[in-house]
Amino acid sequence: MNLTKEIKQPAVLSVPASGRELPLMEAFYTIQGEGYNTGKAAYFIRLGGCDIGCHWCDVKESWDAAAHPLTSVASIVAQAQQYPGKAVVVTGGEPLIYNLDLLTLTLQQAGILTFLETSGAYPLSGSWDWVCVSPKKFKKPLPSVLAKADELKVIVFNKSDFAWAEEHAGQVAPHTRLYLQPEWSKAQQIVPDIVDYVKNNPKWQVSLQTHKYLNIP
Ligand code: SF4
User: Fold this and answer.
1) Domain ranges of the chain
2) How many A from CA of 95 to the centre of ligand 1?
3) Of 109, 113, 107, whose CA–CA distance to 87 is shortest?
4) Any idea which positions bind substrate (predicted)?
């Protein structure tokens, strides 16, 4: 059954091309739980708006951009500056729907590292210290974004996803770190397969959603 057909896709709010204001769903200071930067203190900026439609999405509230207040970049950065950890994770939703040049430059000027979490389905904007591309089946990543990935993080829902992961590994740069991460609701069933796969294909590493085990956001 294709569950994605049952999901109504939200309209994405159009925002000024300048990116001076962005639909902010939530922002919070926590620990990055996944991928290369696991364990690092980071301020998360979650932007509203996504038209990808993953059926297992755990932040469906983010999809409707209009449900989240347009917030000035100045205000977003001022909040981020309050915390001792000088790294920000920009996530969504799909943050690359918006022009992120101003947000990332302002953060970097404030001495804050900029980490991106994206599906790669929209052109890359912004100045990034780390780009994590997590490709989704429902809207393919752009080759131009895959080429800029520091990290490729593939969510594994079933065994056929390993072949799909390899397809994308063939499109990233040689230095790109490769991660396989179990989809949370399937973790118990699929983790043994991921462990076997990584042991046999050691260019990959396991990524776990450690924040969920730590019971933090
Ligand atoms: S791309 Fe991310 S936010 Fe959008 S539907 Fe998929 S998991 Fe959810």
Assistant:
1) 21-213
2) 10
3) 113
4) 31-33, 46, 91, 217
Q: Whose alpha carbon is nearest atom 7 of ligand 1? A: 57
C-alpha of residue 56 to centroid of ligand 1, in Å: 8
- Whole-number Å distance, alpha carbon 199 to ligand 1 midpoint, is 29
Q: Tell how strand 113-118 and strand 21-31 pair up.
A: unpaired
Q: Count Cα atoms within 13 angstroms, Cβ side, for 41.
A: 7
pTM value > 0.85: yes
Q: Which CATH number fits domain 21-213: 3.20.20.70, 3.60.110.10, 2.60.40.1080, 3.40.50.720?
A: 3.20.20.70
Q: How confident is the model at residue 4 (pLDDT cuts 50, 70, 90)?
A: very low
Calpha distance 4→206 (Å, rounded): 27
Model confidence at 10: pLDDT above 90? no
Structure tokens at 181: 């991460």
**Ligand 1 contact, 54 CB (< 6 A):** yes
pLDDT tens digits, residue range 131-179?
999 999 989 999 999 999 999 999 999 999 999 999 999 999 999 999 9
Minimal-distance CA residue to ligand 1 atom 2: 93
Ligand 1 touching residue 50 (CB < 6 A): yes
Identify residue 21 by its one-letter amino acid code.
Answer: E
- Per the model's pLDDT, the better-predicted residue between 23 and 9 turns out to be 23
- Pocket test of ligand 1: the residue of 26, 54, 96 to mutate, having most ligand atoms within 8 Å of its CB, is 54
